[in-house]
Structures are given as C-alpha cells and as structure tokens.
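Hi W.,

Here's what went into the run:
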Amino acid sequence: MTATEHTEPLNKQALKRQARTQQRNELSLSLPAFILVGSLVLVPIGWLFWLSIYGADGFTAENYIRLLHPSYKKTLITTFELAFLVTGLCILLGYPLAYLASQLKPRMASLVLLCVLFPFWTSLLVRTYAWLVLLQRRGLINTWLMDMGLIDAPLKLAHNFTGTTIGMVHIMLPFFVLPLYASMKTVDLSLLKAAANLGASPVKAFWQIYVPLTLSGLGAGVILVFVLSLGFYVTPALLGGGRVMMWAMQIERSMAVYADWGAASALGVVLLVMTLGILWAFARLTGAMSSVEGK
Amino acid sequence: MWNKPATDTQVTHLQRLWLYILCTLVLLFLVMPTLLVIPMSFSDSRYLSFPPESWSLRWYRAYFSSAEWLQATAVSFKVAFLTMILATTTGTLASYGLHTTRARLGKYMMVLLTMPMIIPVILLAVGIFLTFAPVGLNSTIGGLVLAHTVLAIPLVMITVTAGLKNFDINQEMVARSMGASRPWAFLTVTLPQIRNSVLSGALLAFIISLDEVVIALLIAGGDKATLTRRMFLALRDEIDPTIAAISTLLIVFSIVMLALSQFLQSKK
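Here's what came out:
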C-alpha cells in the first residue's frame, strides 16, 4: 500500500518531465522559422511603430497629425474607393463564375479552375504589362476601335483610375473565386430542390436558400480582396501612371523620395491597423455567426 | 437540349444562357490578356499591333544579348532557388513540430509564423530595409533570400500542415517504439508520405520569390537587381518590347510549374 503511494507520484513526475522535454523539443523545431519571422517582420514593425511616435525631441504625435493634411486624405479616399470598386466588381464577375463552376461536371469544372489558376500562377508583373499593352493610348484596344471606326480619338484607358481598376480586378478575381468555389462545393443542392418543391420560385430559392448558404465563402473572398487591395502597390503604380496615389505608394514615396521615416512609419502603422482591424472584425463576425447557427 | 432543366429548381439551360455567356466572358478576361503577350513578343516592330505585321525573334535576341537582363535573370533564379531551400526546410520543420506538439504555445506560434501573409508587403519591405541598413544586407543576395524566405514560410507551412493532417502520426510512433530515433523515424516514415505537400510547398516558395516585386524594389539595388525589379522600372518609363519576350518566357515557365503542381496534387 505504502509502496504504491510512493511510486505513483514519483512515476507521474518522471512522465510529466519527459512529456515537457518532448514538448520543448517539438516546439524548438519551429525556432529557425521563428527567428527569421521575428527578426525580419515582428521586430521591424515594432521599430516602425516606435519611429512613428518617437522623434528627435521625444514622444510626439506630429507624424499622425500630419496625416490629416488634405493630400493624405485624398490618398486615403482613393485607396478606399479603389478597394470598394474592385471588391464590388469581383462579386459581380466572380460569384456567377464560382456558382456555375461548382455545378459543372468534374472535367469542365477543372477546365474552368485551370483558367482561374492560370493568372494566379503567372507573374503579377507580366499580367500588368499585358494590360498596359491592351489599354494604353496606342495600345491594342484603341487601335482596334479606331480601325473599326468606332472612335476618332484614343480613349484614355491606362495611366488613370479606369486602367488601375481593370488591372486590379484581373489580379484579385482568382483570390475571390477560389474560396467561394470551395464553399459552394459544400452546399447541399437538395435543399434547393426542397425549396422548389415547397413552391419557391427559382429566384426566391436562389436568394433565400443558396446565397445565405454561401455567405461564409463570399465573406472570405470579399475580405481577402478588400484587404489585399488596400495595401496594393505594383498594379496601381504602373497602370495608374502616377495619377492614382494609393496608400502603399505614399509609404514608398515618403521613404524613397523624401527619406521621411516619421511619415513613412506613421502611414505604415495606419495601414497595418486598418488591415488587422478589418480581419479581426471579420473573424469576430463569422465567429458570432457560426455560434448563432450552432444554436 | 436547351430546354432541359439545368438546376434543381428547374431553370432550363436556355433560361440561364446569360450565365454561360457571362462566365465565358469572365474566363476570357482572365486568360486572354496574358496570352496576347505571346504573339506580341514575336513582332518585328517597336510599336504594338495585333496580329503583328511581320514576325521576328528580334526581341528575344535583344534579351539574350543584354548583359543587364541576363544578370538580373541569374540573380532572380539564384534567389528563388535559395529561398525555396531555406523556406522549405524551416517551414517543414516548424509545421512538423507545431503539428505534433501538445504545448499550448504551439497555437500562438502558428499564428505568429503566418503573420507575413496578412501584413501588407509594402510594410514588410520598409521594415526589412530598415533592419538590413545597419547590417549591410541591402542589395545582397543573402538579404533578398532572407526577405523572400519570410514571405514564403507561411505558404510552405499551410501546404505541409495540410499534408500532415492527412497522415496518421501513429505510424511514426510505431517506428519509434521499435527503436528508431525520432529524426530517423521522421525522415524514413513521415517525410516520404508527406513528400508531395512538401514539394508543392517548395514550388510555391520558388514562384513567390521569382514573382516578388515590392521587396526587391526597395532592397535590391545595383548589380543585385532582380528580373522583376528591372521589369518594373522599365515599364514605368516606356514600353520596351523586350519585356514581351521576357514575359513570354516567364509565362511558359509558370505553365510548366502549374502543370507540375497539378500533377503533384493529383498524386496526393
């Protein structure tokens, strides 16, 4: 009796110690990756945050107050306008595509998915170049339209907001379609049959049964596209031709042109807070939604 | 055929003809612009016209005889290759460790390591420039590799973790209970079975590094400029048809990569 009383806790401790060593060993496998991400992402961003609030004469809010200047406000408005427009167009073009693709026979569906994945795998720069070739003043679209006699003077399609929007939708559409397609594949289509059976018109069944069932995939696509658009640099810089000033371009400019670390870091912190804030709100929202559904 | 119902709600094919047309147009929108670049690259003229009035390999010759473009290409592929090695090893190790551990810290670690995916790239680029400046890593191959590795780690981890979830970890336990050391059990039992996930993670890491523009734009100057950095700067100034030739080569390269990754996934 006494023997077991003694050995049991002893064994337990030994096992616990062993388990702890094992856990530590397993965790330490992620150490190389952590050192890389920590020293190149987490520390620098902390540093940027510090630079944005600590100037030559101590703590200051000056860098943030400067962001209220009309030129920054204009950048912010352009950025949000573009992000909203791109997201809206992605819904209009991507939702029908994902819907149809999710109902096609496997062979056709994989063909459609290949078409969606192809731009995903092609270099961003190549795709932006392709749009420049198509849209610029002496580009293909203007040449064709003029040859056909539809227009007299070339349309202004590139180096402005229109061109940027077209290029951005092209870049973002795969990000939108892929999660939506995945969620549409899980929808039980017999629910629609049941709705029709109970007298719902096809339109009503679609809006009241199908769309709500795909909301989580739709939300994921929307958030992904919106957040990526907010911080986008390459396509607006090239297709906007300097006339479309995005938040990310303002950051690059304050750093590279003016070497103004205070402004660059404050702009960066604002972008990061907006991005993380939207993602956090979305996570809370879907969390709340799934807990309601669960009940 | 057109009057047969297409959906469970008895909508006929004819009634949703608009959907088929719209989707075809969207698919063309996704694929055509990129493909148009290919014939353009064989044009003989400086000016853009489609179809080209006369054909030539002029722009390919221009690319292959330009020391600057070739150097940039060499830098890009060197960086992409090294990034692939570094990101795949660190990412796979971390995924394995975090997948098997029961430590509560593991969950937070996973979130931390996937952070580079949700932080805007421009911010990462500015931060990395700031960190590299005092240690002299800006405009070096090593600096570029480190920066791209950080970008690729989350994607490698997501791919490898997905593979680990389909793998029964008990098999490794059996190997260990029969006397295999843990690293040996991992290398001979686990790794061969998650091989395809690791390989597609590696492929992703390579492509990410090869395509990356923003970080390269900020930290890769001088003779360490990458292909994408040179292309970006060239595009900002004027449309040089040499870029059409380079783009075509890159498109062919990505088609091969895509085919390879599809092949790996079908074997899973």
